[in-house]
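Exercise 3.2. Students should predict the tertiary structure of the chain below and write it as structure tokens, then compare their answer with the key that follows.

Predict this chain's 3D structure.
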Amino acid sequence: MIRLCFKGQVYFTLNSCYIYSILVYLHTFFNKIISMYAVVEIAGQQFKVEKDQKVYVNRLEGKEGSKISFDNILMLDNSGKIVVGDPVVKGASVEAKIVKHLKDDKVIVFKKKRRKGYKVKNGHRQALTQIIVENILEKAAKAKVKAKTETSKSDAPAKKVAAKKPVAKKVAAVKKPAVKKAATKKTVTKK
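Answer key:
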């Protein structure tokens, strides 16, 4: 028990359980690591992702171990600096790696109409892909990469482009309507 006193007067008293919770709160508050996160749209769903986070998304095309990149970044937060897209943040991307393809737990779908003898029981397992986020790139990072590629392209000798010859337009042949044949009448003999 701790008592806070000033000039012999007790202002408040704390039990040990309260002291522990206050210390835990102060520890988490001062040791909080502010990291970068992004809100990204993957396979029609929105996810809040951070670096090295594992995410389960609807089945994606690609083999296990392959790397993929998502360009539909709706929002970025880099240590309190928030960038909101309109509708997406231009130049930003999230790089991820496919860990494995799997199926979700079974969901039972049971339909019944009372007094009619109608019962249907179905099961469903959703196909999922587990990905791990490797990197979140802002537009500044992509701009540097583009600038490097542009400088390397400008250093290369310029190639001469041959002038294109004008192509003569072909006149389409006029189609004639198809001629209908007259139906022949069959004679029926009576016996």
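Discussion points: The chain has two helices and twelve strands. Residues 139-155 form the longest helix (17 residues).
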